[in-house]
Amino acid sequence: MRLIAANWKMNKTVSETREYIEKFLRLIGEPEDREVLICPPFTSLYVAGEMLKGSSVKLGAQNCHFERKGAFTGEVSLPMLREVGCSYVIVGHSERRHIFGETDDLINRKLVACLEEGIRPILCVGEKLEDREAGMTFKVVETQIRIALSGIEHLTDRIDIAYEPVWAIGTGVPASPEDAVEVHRFIREILRDINPKAEGGTRILYGGSVNPENAPEFMKHQEIEGLLVGGASLDPESFAKIVNSF
Ligand code: 13P
Fold first, then answer.
1. Is residue 24 within 8 Å of residue 241, measured between CB atoms?
2. Nearest to 227 by CA among 140, 122, 129, 151
C-alpha cells in the first residue's frame, strides 16, 4: 500500500494539533487503499496518538535516540515513542543531517534500534544542489543508503526510504517526477543488490515541495510509492487533498 506521510517539523502546539486532527479525520474518512501517517513534534505525540486511536491514520515521530534509556539529556527513546502510539519514525531527515550534524553512522545506529524495537523507520536520503550539479546524485544517495543499512541488510523490507533532494525541500521547487523516478529506480537497484531476497517490502517515497497540485503528477508513476510532505501538510485541508489526489 502506498504511504502518504506528513512531516510537521517544528510546527504546532498541543492545541493546534487537536484542532488539526479533528478537522483532518473529518476530511479524510477511512481511506482503504493507501496508508496515511502524521509525524507531529514530540510534545504533540501523546495527544495525537489518543485522537488517532480507532482511525486508520498512523502516528510517527520525526527523530529518536538509539539507546532505550539513560543519561541523554534532551533525547527521546523508542520505547517512549511506542507507548504514545508511534508505529513509524523518520530517521536521517536532511535537516537532522545538515543542521544538527547527524552522520550516516549515527543514522545506522538509529535504524538498528528501530528494528529492534519494531518501529518502522523511514530513512531519508537525498543530494544537495552542489552534489547534483557535480553529477554526484547517485553516488551520494548510494553512500547514504549503504552506510545506513549496514548490518541490517537482511531486514531492508522493514524500512521505507524517502528520497528528498535537499534543494527541493521547502523551496517550492520540486524535482521533476521524471528525475525523481530515475533516482527511485536507482534506489530500488541498490536495495536489490543489498538484499536480493526482499522482493519489495521497502516503499520508496518522494519528498520536497509536494503540494495538492503536483502530488498526482508524482503518484502516477508506479516507482513513486508514497510522499513525505512538509509545508503542505500543515493545513489539514491541503494534506487531505494530497492524500486524495490520486
Ligand atoms: P516540504 O514539503 O516543505 O518541501 O518539506 C519536505 C520535507 O522535508 C518532508 O520531510
1. no
2. 122
Mutation choice for ligand 1 from 10, 128, 164, 167, CB with most ligand atoms inside 8 A: 164
Is the confidence at residue 199, as pLDDT, over 80?
no
Got the DSSP string for 203-214?
A: -EEEESS--TTT
User: What would the mean pLDDT of 163-175 be, rounded to a whole number?
Assistant: 97
Q: Which of 35, 102, 164, 225 is catalytic?
A: 164
Exposure string over 6-26, b if 16+ CB within 10 A, otherwise e: bbbbebbeeeebbebbeebbe
pLDDT above 70 coverage of the chain, percent: 100
- CA dist 42 and 232 (Å) reads 20
| Residue 90 host element (H or E) | strand 86-91
Instruction: Indicate the domain borders of the chain.
Output: 2-243
- Catalytic status, residue 164: yes
CATH topology of domain 2-243: TIM Barrel (3.20.20)
Task: State the amino acid at position 150 in one-letter form.
Answer: S
Mean pLDDT of 110-121: 98
